[in-house]
Amino acid sequence: MATTGAEPAVSNASPLPELAKVRRYEAAGFRAWPAAAVHYDGTWLVRLTAGHPAKRLNSVNPLDPGDVVNIGERIARAARRFDAYGRPLTFRMSPLSGVALSRHLDAEGWSVFSESLVMRAPLDDAAIAEAMDQIPLKDMGRFIGAALKVHGSDASLRPGLSEILGSIQPEAGLFVVEQDEEPLATAICVHDGDLAGLFEIATDAAHRGKGHGRRIVLSSLKWARLRGAREAWLQVEADNEAALGLYRSIGFSEIYRYHYRRPPEA
Q1: 130-139 per-position pLDDT tens digit
Q2: 179-233: per-residue pLDDT in tens?
Q3: Angle CA(105)–CA(113)–CA(236) in degrees, nearest 5?
Q4: What does residue 16 show for φ and ψ, rounded to 5 degrees?
Q5: CB 23 within 8 A of CB 258
Q6: In this structure, are residues 201 and 192 in contact, taking their beta carbons and an 8 Å threshold?
Q7: How many other CB atoms are found less than 10 A from the CB of residue 247?
Q8: Torsion sign, CA atoms 117, 122, 127, 132
Q9: Which residues have a Cβ under 8 Å from the Cβ of 20 and sit 6 or more positions away?
């Protein structure tokens, strides 16, 4: 549920993370899940994607807590860009956003919603000891069809998802667990130097609780480990208890959190 004003902006009991560490994972996330259009206003990174409605791809991402000059004017400029794309003005607030901007948005009555955790795990031989060898799909169309089915997404998202996957610059592995040619689970693993980022992990609703999610995560990480990755990371919504339980059992721990904000409706 959205919150406003004096209510807590985020429920984060963890110590404040080092900003250099946050910047590293934020940059990896932008490379691994690229927006169609990118603009900078100072150190605010504006990401917009006409073909896909995901908040990560359609948000303002402040990257320096000290960049607080002319906040109102810059918000107005961002609003015009979002309006041109037919997207609601959305800010993605990580620890890089800073207190001053949060207070400004509080004062303007912006809502807070959709908190997520960024988690990491060391990627060594022990971490992937139980992983099965799995070769990622080369057929992007087949993977997209499987991902849309597993996520329960509308087929209209196919062109947008195809554009995103085709724009990923680091090496990306597309993984699917199938049974009788029916997709049960999907995941994307982006190998970026010593990092392995996991994205779009999902299990078909009718087949959850059977270990498919664990299998596909470990197989993806083994693939990245064999290519030189030494650390795994991912993003997960804070209220997804099933996913959090899975990731923690594999060895992931929280680094920092982020959430989204939108202005009050006119």
Answers
A1: 899 999 999 9
A2: 988 999 999 999 999 999 999 999 999 999 999 999 999 999 999 999 999 999 9
A3: 130
A4: -65, 130
A5: no
A6: no
A7: 24
A8: positive
A9: none
Identify whether the C-beta of residue 224 lies closer than 8 Å to the C-beta of residue 191: yes
Coil, strand or helix at 244: helix
| Residue 132 to residues 129, 207, 212, 217, Cα–Cα distance (Å) | 9, 19, 12, 10
Q: Is 213 helix (H, G, I), strand (E, B) or coil?
A: helix
What long-range pairs does 205-211 form, CB within 8 A, spacing at least 24?
A: 205/152, 207/179, 208/242
Length of the chain as a residue count: 266
Which token pair is 31?
């490379």
* Alpha-carbon distances, residue 127 vs 122, 244, 247, 263 (angstroms): 7, 17, 12, 43
Tokens representing 50 are 């006409």
Instruction: Identify residue 174 by its one-letter amino acid code.
Output: L
